[in-house]
């Protein structure tokens, strides 16, 4: 690192311990096993600049986490006995002897290899404001004088991030025909690009002062035009319209504060440890590569709890990634929470813009600014929190703005990152149950509600949280594949214009995002046990049967994975899975001489449907196949595939399954193969599929598996039977028919003893109808639906999957003479393309 460092190395023992006492280092990645270090090659750490303080911070992390200790290189080469640390040269004529010797040795000795590990040290995590005094004195920067470096360490030493990059392919990098000087310059260039990108990925872009940001929003050409139009339309002065636009900007814009971030970090660390048993995070390495690739990153998570707002940002901060700005509903902008969230990166939006073109223009300009600057952002494609645990149909308003900004050439290439968030237990689940039952009306949040809710929350444990980052969607590549000539179309797009091609493209993209969220789900023990318990007819299962079924389903999840990103249970032993799930599920043990029986109270059974719904899609295809054997001992494989493919679109649209319809047959075939491998199905000498013998553990598991999709298939059977009942007239009025389906489901719930409000959720029936329109069995004609005669065969196939008692109940209900009683004749169907 130069003569100065070699002189200072004599005094290192005097500096090391006081510095370690002062600084608090945190490694990135937090799981250092992500770094592909091998034990058969020497290690050489590479810093972007020569700095004793950076070296000591690196040494502290290595000592704490068992990595090879970094020694100053001096005249020594990296060896198995001694790892070294070097720095990039200052310039073309600067000091580069250490890298030069390492490169020269590799060119001379073809057997010599070394792991070059780039290391970035960040003193503080401040995406500081431009031209701020803090930046001048205390904010970390790539090159500083010795005095300023000391001030930086004193100010930010308690929050020091040491990031380790992946080792460079040293042997693959060398070119034996090139001169050492040329190779060193090439190596330095590659490393400098890495360090520059890593700095951007960790700190994000520099921020403007909030007043400057708001002034820039008001200076936007589209906003100025909207101000003039608003003044003319509302017959007010331009100054009054501009004042209203400024109020909108103040309502929307975030106001980042590092002090607030530090405070929330300490609070959240305490909170997670208090109410959760850990946060399980998956696929961080892929996310890190995406953020390092100079892209605008847009995080689109599932939304199940208010904790989601804080959780993803907390994980990103802990993992050394730039914090996103978060779109939050304006209902959360109440004192003092609103101001605190705003300072942690929240920007607020109204639930509906209600044709307010001025508000729309200001908000769109704000989104444009975020994307232009390369500021990561996060919003929830569902629009609101799911009350049932299922993914909701996506709202496309915010996504449309982000897409038009990113594809309109207003920023860096964008990557959309779907994020799955799951919980052993969601803290709001009791409130959700009451809302679905209609006993509690959803109202705006307030400080009083927060205080009252916090006292209850802090007294309980909610198990583990599961966060998984899905496969990033390269937005430009996606547009190339799905929107021909999109560059020309985007250039011609006018403000507030949402042509049909844009609506269709964004709707397709939104569906892809939801499918990707589900494709990266984690199957936790609580979700798996809830699937088994709620699938039992009386919500009661013998303990030995529960243990065996859990083991078989866990094995199925491993042998027949939903996707390469889906995570099966960590444990495979059914007894261990039950032990983990039992306290979260609040199971009741009923002692019996032949073994305990496990059950739950009626209300708790309903609450567990939320946990079940988080993960039920992971077994959608095996469950669909299993249903063909619930009432038949054997069936031909090809016949099963034919009938299952016919039903697949329903499940795909309801659960956002990842396979296109044309791939459904192959996917169902893989599901059958998985069932055969696990012994849940058998095959005779002719290839005919058979269910296991009754009374065996495999038979019990197959029946439990079949019940996972049973309610969905029952709803589908109701829908198509009601439609076939109207074949003589040939059409139905959509709004009226949706209400008929809901009333019929309510009736069925009463007759069958179901205590599950989601069973008659009107949105599910609306979704069924849209699916039937998409596959050509219904045809939209204004407010009416024309029924295709082929629907009769579909109805018969759907009924075959149900038991005789359910077939009789459905047949009886569809033949009632007063089927329209209780239906509001003014009911209108919600447009299928509606978005906010």
TrEMBL record:
A single GO cellular-component term from the record reads: plasma membrane
Q: Name one GO biological process term.
A: fatty acid metabolic process
The record's SUPFAM superfamilies line, in alphabetical order, gives: Glycerol-3-phosphate (1)-acyltransferase
Q: Which pathway is it part of? A: Lipid metabolism; Phospholipid metabolism; CDP-diacylglycerol biosynthesis; CDP-diacylglycerol from sn-glycerol 3-phosphate: step 1/3
* Renumbered ranges of motif HXXXXD motif: 302-307
Name the InterPro entries on file. GPAT/DHAPAT, GPAT/DHAPAT_C, GPAT/DHAPAT_LPLAT, GPAT_PlsB, Plipid/glycerol_acylTrfase
Q: Which reaction does it catalyse?
A: sn-glycerol 3-phosphate + an acyl-CoA = a 1-acyl-sn-glycero-3-phosphate + CoA
Give UniProt keywords alphabetically: Acyltransferase, Cell membrane, Lipid biosynthesis, Lipid metabolism, Membrane, Phospholipid biosynthesis, Phospholipid metabolism, Transferase
Compartments, record wording: Cell membrane
Superkingdom of source: Bacteria
Pfam families according to UniProt: Acyltransferase, GPAT_C
First-tier enzyme category under EC: transferase
Give membrane topology per the record: Peripheral membrane protein
**What is stated about domains?**
The HXXXXD motif is essential for acyltransferase activity and may constitute the binding site for the phosphate moiety of the glycerol-3-phosphate.
Assigned protein family? Belongs to the GPAT/DAPAT family.
Q: What is this protein called?
A: Glycerol-3-phosphate acyltransferase
Q: Which organism is it from?
A: Salinisphaera shabanensis E1L3A
């Amino acid at each position: 690192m130069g003569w100065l460092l070699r002189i200072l190395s004599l005094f290192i023992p005097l500096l090391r311990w006081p510095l370690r006492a002062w600084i608090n280092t945190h490694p990135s990645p937090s799981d250092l096993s992500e770094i592909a270090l091998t034990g058969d090659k020497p290690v050489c750490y590479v810093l972007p600049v020569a700095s004793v303080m950076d070296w000591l911070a690196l040494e502290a992390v290595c000592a704490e986490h068992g990595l090879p200790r970094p020694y100053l290189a001096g005249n020594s080469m990296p060896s198995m006995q001694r790892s070294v640390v070097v720095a990039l040269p200052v310039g073309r004529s600067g000091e580069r002897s250490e890298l030069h010797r390492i490169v020269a040795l590799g060119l001379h000795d073809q057997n010599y290899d070394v792991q070059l590990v780039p290391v970035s040290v960040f003193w503080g995590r401040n995406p500081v404001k431009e031209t701020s005094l803090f930046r001048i004195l205390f904010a970390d920067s790539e090159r500083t004088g010795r005095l300023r470096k000391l001030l930086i360490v004193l100010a930010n030493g308690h929050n020091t991030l040491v990031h380790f990059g992946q080792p460079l392919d040293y042997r693959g990098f060398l070119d034996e025909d090139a001169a050492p000087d040329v190779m060193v310059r090439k190596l330095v260039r590659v490393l400098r690009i890495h360090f520059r990108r890593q700095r951007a990925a960790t700190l994000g872009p520099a921020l403007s002062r909030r007043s400057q940001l708001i002034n820039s929003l008001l200076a936007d050409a589209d906003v100025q035009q909207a101000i003039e139009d608003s003044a003319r339309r509302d017959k007010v002065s331009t100054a009054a319209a501009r004042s209203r636009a400024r109020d909108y900007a103040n309502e929307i814009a975030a106001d980042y504060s590092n002090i607030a971030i530090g405070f929330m970090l300490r609070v959240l660390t305490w909170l997670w440890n208090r109410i959760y048993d850990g946060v399980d995070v998956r696929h961080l390495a892929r996310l890190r590569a995406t953020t390092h690739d100079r892209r605008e990153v847009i995080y689109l998570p599932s939304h199940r709890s208010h904790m989601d707002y804080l959780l993803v940002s907390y994980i990103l901060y802990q993992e050394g990634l730039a914090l996103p700005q978060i779109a939050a509903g304006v209902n959360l902008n109440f004192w003092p929470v609103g101001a605190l969230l705003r300072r942690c990166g929240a920007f607020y939006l109204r639930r509906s813009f209600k044709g307010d073109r001025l508000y729309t223009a200001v908000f769109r300009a704000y989104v444009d600014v975020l994307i232009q600057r390369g500021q990561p952002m996060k919003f929830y494609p569902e629009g609101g929190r799911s009350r049932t645990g299922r993914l909701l149909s996506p709202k496309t308003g915010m996504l449309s703005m982000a897409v038009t900004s990113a594809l309109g050439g207003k920023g860096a290439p964008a990557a959309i990152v779907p994020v799955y968030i799951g919980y052993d237990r969601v803290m709001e689940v009791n409130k959700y149950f009451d809302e679905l039952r209609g006993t509690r009306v959803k109202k705006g949040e307030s400080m009083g509600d927060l205080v009252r809710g916090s006292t209850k929350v802090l007294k309980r444990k909610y198990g583990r949280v599961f966060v998984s980052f899905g496969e990033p969607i390269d937005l430009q590549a996606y547009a190339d594949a799905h929107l021909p000539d999109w560059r020309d179309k985007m250039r011609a797009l006018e403000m507030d214009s949402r042509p049909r091609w844009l609506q269709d493209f964004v709707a397709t993209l939104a569906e892809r995002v939801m499918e990707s969220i589900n494709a990266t789900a984690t199957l936790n023990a609580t979700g798996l046990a809830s699937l088994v318990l709620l699938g039992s007819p009386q919500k009661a299962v013998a303990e030995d049967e529960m243990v065996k079924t859990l083991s078989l389903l866990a094995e199925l999840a491993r042998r027949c994975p939903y996707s390469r990103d889906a995570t099966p249970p960590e444990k495979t032993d059914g007894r261990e899975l039950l032990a983990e799930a039992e306290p979260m599920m609040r199971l009741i043990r009923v002692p019996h001489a032949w073994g305990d029986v496990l059950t739950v109270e009626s209300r708790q059974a309903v609450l567990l449907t939320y946990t079940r719904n988080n993960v039920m899609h992971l077994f959608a295809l095996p469950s669909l196949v299993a249903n063909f054997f619930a009432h038949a001992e054997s069936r031909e494989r090809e016949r099963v595939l034919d009938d299952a493919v016919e039903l697949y679109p329903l499940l795909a649209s309801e659960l956002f399954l990842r396979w296109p319809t044309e791939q459904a047959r192959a996917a169902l075939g893989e599901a059958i193969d998985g069932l055969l491998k696990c012994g849940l199905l058998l095959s005779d000498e002719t290839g005919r599929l058979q269910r296991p013998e009754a009374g065996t553990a495999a038979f019990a598991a197959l029946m439990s598996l079949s019940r996972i999709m049973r309610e969905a298939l029952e709803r589908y059977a109701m829908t198509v039977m009601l439609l076939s009942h109207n074949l003589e007239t040939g059409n139905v009025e959509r709004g009226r028919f949706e209400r008929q389906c809901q009333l019929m489901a309510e009736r069925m719930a009463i007759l069958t003893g179901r205590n599950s409000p989601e069973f008659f959720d009107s949105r599910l029936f609306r979704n069924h109808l849209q699916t039937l329109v998409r596959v050509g069995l219904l045809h939209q004609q204004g407010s009416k639906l024309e029924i295709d005669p082929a629907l009769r065969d579909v109805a018969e196939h759907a009924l075959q999957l149900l038991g005789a008692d359910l077939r009789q109940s459905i047949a009886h209900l569809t033949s009632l003479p007063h089927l329209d009683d209780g239906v509001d004749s003014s009911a209108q169907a919600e447009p299928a393309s509606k978005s906010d």
